[in-house]
Design brief:
Order of helices and strands: EEHEHEHEHHEHEHEHHEEHH
CATH class: Alpha Beta
Shape: globular
Distance between the termini: 32 Å
Strand order of the largest sheet: 4-3-5-6-8-7-9-10
Radius of gyration: 19 Å
Number of helices: 11
Helix content: 25-40%
Number of domains: 1
Number of strands: 10
Largest sheet: 8 strands, mixed
Bound molecules: thiamine diphosphate, iron/sulfur cluster
CATH superfamily: Thiamin diphosphate (ThDP)-binding fold, Pyr/PP domains
Structural class: alpha/beta
Strand content: 15-25%
CATH topology: Rossmann fold
CATH architecture: 3-Layer(aba) Sandwich
């Protein structure tokens, strides 16, 4: 905080978690998400651990940094292992700041999955946040296992054949205390989930669908509207999983046609006009989710939703 000439307290740029001058593209979901994480933490500064991804390019060149918090750069395969060490040492020193792994889908769904699984199984004390832009953005937009079926990437030039991996189900299988999906178009829900994760101990997993105009071939000013459409059409459900077993849906689809979403992104050009495979994916996804909520609903003890 700084004091102005008029005696008012205001947040100095250097105090923001994401500072001005960072390298994120216009309309990048990371820029919104990092600011909302900062606001949800109400000034508390986390220790960030970031593997190879756009999120570590964002920091810029040493000795300057676009992050207003201690930040450790990790290899793809080791970010939860490094965060485990940092979190353990912090606890020994009686430090209370949250340790946050901030990683893309390539580092989460693919290359880092083994160490994420190991840290989750040990219930290490960290918040793991995946900003999922559904491609390897930093290296030119290759497919990842988070890329939805039909999407054109630099390695799936006629549209990806396989469906998006269900990372939430994988994390639920580790019985971690808290897992949730977050949208950069639903601020109240987003802030509540960050606070909830902050208040929980152990391994917490948060998945953010993160617009990437560069890779999605979309307009930067459309970013939040696209995420709103992903939620409204049912493509990206907002939900929470407690202890890996109890489910809670935070928002249900309102019937928006998936065409509205895909027609605004040239990455979907291979399936524009025939979204049947995406519609089938949405149907199957909701069938599974509704079944889980019915069989294993969250309880009052799981808190406000
Ligand atoms: C072991 C390893 N393989 C490949 C790379 C090259 N590489 C750097 S960033 C990146 C893409 C990361 O994608 P993602 O994690 O989805 O984050 P994004 O770039 O989309 O932000 C790749 C493949 C690397 N640094 N290390
Ligand atoms: S390539 Fe995508 S994820 Fe990377 S900074 Fe640009 S918009 Fe953000």
């Amino acid at each position: 905080m700084t004091t102005t000439a008029q005696g008012n307290q205001e947040t100095a740029y250097c105090d923001y978690l994401l500072r001005p001058g960072n390298t994120n593209c216009a309309g990048c979901g990371m820029s919104i998400a990092l600011q909302w994480v900062d606001q949800a933490l109400e000034g508390e500064k986390p220790t960030l651990v970031i593997p190879a991804c756009c999120g570590i390019v964002t920091a810029g060149a040493f000795p300057t940094s676009a992050y207003g918090a201690p930040t450790a750069a990790a290899t793809f395969a080791s970010s939860p292992a490094l965060a485990t060490g940092i979190s353990t040492i912090a606890a020994l020193n009686e430090e209370t700041q949250p340790v946050i792994c901030w990683a893309g889908d390539g580092g989460t769904y693919d290359i880092g999955l083994a160490t994420i699984s190991a840290a989750a199984e040990r219930n290490e004390n960290m918040i793991y946040i995946c900003y999922d832009n559904e491609i390897y953005g930093n290296t030119g937009g290759q497919r990842s296992s988070a890329t939805p079926a039909g999407v054109v990437t630099s390695t799936t030039t006629s549209g990806k054949g396989e469906r998006k991996k269900d990372i939430m189900a994988i994390m639920a299988g580790h019985h971690i205390p808290y897992a949730a999906t977050l949208s950069v178009a639903h601020r109240d829900d987003f802030i509540r989930k960050i606070k909830r994760a902050r208040a929980t101990k152990g391994f917490r997993f948060l998945l953010i669908l993160s617009p990437c105009p560069t890779g999605w071939k979309s307009e930067p000013e459309d970013s939040t509207e696209l995420i709103s459409m992903a939620v409204r059409s049912g493509l990206f459900p907002l939900y929470e999983i407690f202890d890996g077993v109890r489910y809670c849906i935070n928002k249900r689809p309102d019937g928006l046609a998936i065409d509205e979403y895909i027609n605004r992104q040239r990455r979907y050009r291979a399936v524009a006009g025939d979204p049947t495979s995406l519609q089938a994916f949405i149907k199957d996804q909701w069938h599974h989710l509704e079944g889980m909520v019915k069989a294993f609903p969250a309880t009052d003890e799981d808190g406000d939703r």
